[in-house]
Amino acid sequence: MVNRLADATSPYLRQHADNPVHWWEWTPEALAEAARRDVPILLSIGYAACHWCHVMAHESFEDDAVAAAMNAGFVCIKVDREERPDLDAVYMNATVALTGQGGWPMTCFLTPDGRPFFAGTYYPKEQFLQLLSAVEDTWRSRRDEVEQASDQISGELRKMASALPAEGPPVSAQLCDAAVAAVLADEDTVRGGFGGAPKFPPAGLLEALLRHYERTGSAQALAAVQRAGAAMARGGIHDQLAGGFARYSVDNAWVVPHFEKMLYDNALLLRAYAHWARRTADPLARRVAGQTADFLLRDLSADGMFFSSLDADADGSEGSTYVWTPEQLTAVLGPDDGRWAAEVFAVTPAGTFEGGASVLQLPADPEDTGRLRRVSAALLAARAERVQPGRDAKVVTAWNGLAITALADAAVALERPDLLEAAARCARAVLDLHLVDGRLRRAGLGGQVGDSAAILEDYAALATGLLTLYQLTAQQHWLDSAAGLIDTALAHFGDPERPGRWFDTADDAERLVLRPSDPIDGATPAGASLLAEALLTAAHLVDGGRAGRYLRAATETLAVHTPVLARAARSAGHWLAVAEAAVRGPLQIAVAVDAPDSALLAAARRLAPGGTVVVGGAVDSSELLAGRDRVGGADAAYVCRGTVCDLPVTDVRELAAALEASV
């Protein structure tokens, strides 16, 4: 037997290629080997940036005695949750059902045909050894109990997968208002954000609250965005030197992060901060949006696409790259600047992290901004000499789709054409590499695409990114590619028994214990909510027959999922953002121009509420501009809500007034 992970397309799996464990990837051959040996499967699921995954690897998977026990009694399979989110979803549901909580590393024991019978998360070495012995003994001596338990658990998982209520309230302004009220009732008005520790960046909710503010003028909704946005921007979860956000804060005040930096978090937060900056011209929002975009381009990009993450650890030590003591500041900056930096960045002798070190914060902007720039540059240069966190260079289709959308939105908000160029470059690269024979693949590494089939979120997130590019460039190929992805999603991911419900895996994907279908927005939006956004946008950009099909599918999707909004609004941030757009029509702005640098078109993009469909061009150059021409020799904007359009306006003040009237 051998370890088979050296040629994996996942950096996480390659991290385990030198383990004495005889790891397999998840393949039919691995399951067949378990059946041949008549032993259970030990399934370990994690991801490259996961701190506790590294801890368990060092304690157990690199230990010869533990590996020997694993190899003797089990077929051991290692899975990257980011490469195989379908497997992660199935067995995370089992873990939560059995233990009441989930997390990574996830440790599951399965029958050779994949049915789970025991599950947990991180186990210290001695406890893990005891567990291996107990499971192996149970498998040998009480097989009937194992079979009974696995059947029962699999049955419960199938029930959970179809637990979405049959009916909910209709999509309406009242539903959105009630959902926003429920979200705001759970706001931490002192520290910003929602709920307690650990605190996760609520990017989807911020986007939804901004759209609600634009629709209703709610000062409370905007204030919640400002409190959360400012608290995160000034806290330790935000890298004050290099930009970018960590995965979450371990405390309720955003001070100490779990240091891993994920592409999806930063893409979603870039979109939210860009929207906030565009809507209010808040200088903090604008600065953070720019820093986040620069972080993506500098630290997570190669060959036009974007990597998955930066690790929480550097050389086995969590956060060591990022934290500082007062003495370290002085050593880099000298006594005067060192004392000043300690005050500005809230670095104290007691520290906020382990060993008396502090995570840099920026409680307030200093008056001397030039000094801040100089000091920050010196600290960043010194930090670059430290051991750097590992990087997961895997390219995930869905997360690159989120980045394309965010960069394109930020290009408008920050008036940075380079961000639009980066978004287009990424889209071209992803389509060239990950679209194989008309079907998307989930992930690639080093210019090679992996074998894992894309899931619903991959199709939907990439389609939305392409639709955003089409609106900003008027290049038809972006719309054609987006429509092709949407058509594939409609053909392969829908539930034929319930229009509007979507599976996360395609109808021709590998058959698992169950076919996952999770409607809840989590760290990333649900595949179904992403598809609802793509459908709603595309319905107003494509030709008539297709448009009707897309709009019907969008309407059915929102209608089926209103119970999520009504009952769990905090877990439905992206659903709420899409519903807010739908309630407004969505708004469409078609600008008839004779040149792409039209001031009226630029104003339309700048003033448009989130979720608005905006196109510009000559008469009849797109579906929204059919029969709509310039007026009296001037560029003209046509504002529409659903199928009802206002009279055209020809200057920016009239356009602003027309959009204001839509509130």
UniProtKB/TrEMBL annotation:
Domain Spermatogenesis-associated protein 20-like TRX intervals: 3-157
Keyword Nuclease tagged: no
Assigned keywords, A-Z: Membrane, Transmembrane
BP terms from Gene Ontology: carbohydrate metabolic process
Record-linked InterPro entries: 6-hairpin_glycosidase_sf, 6hp_glycosidase-like_sf, Ssp411, Ssp411-like_TRX, Thioredoxin-like_sf
Signal peptide: none
Protein origin, superkingdom: Bacteria
Keyword Transmembrane: yes
PANTHER family in UniProt: SPERMATOGENESIS-ASSOCIATED PROTEIN 20
Protein name as it appears in the record: Conserved transmembrane protein
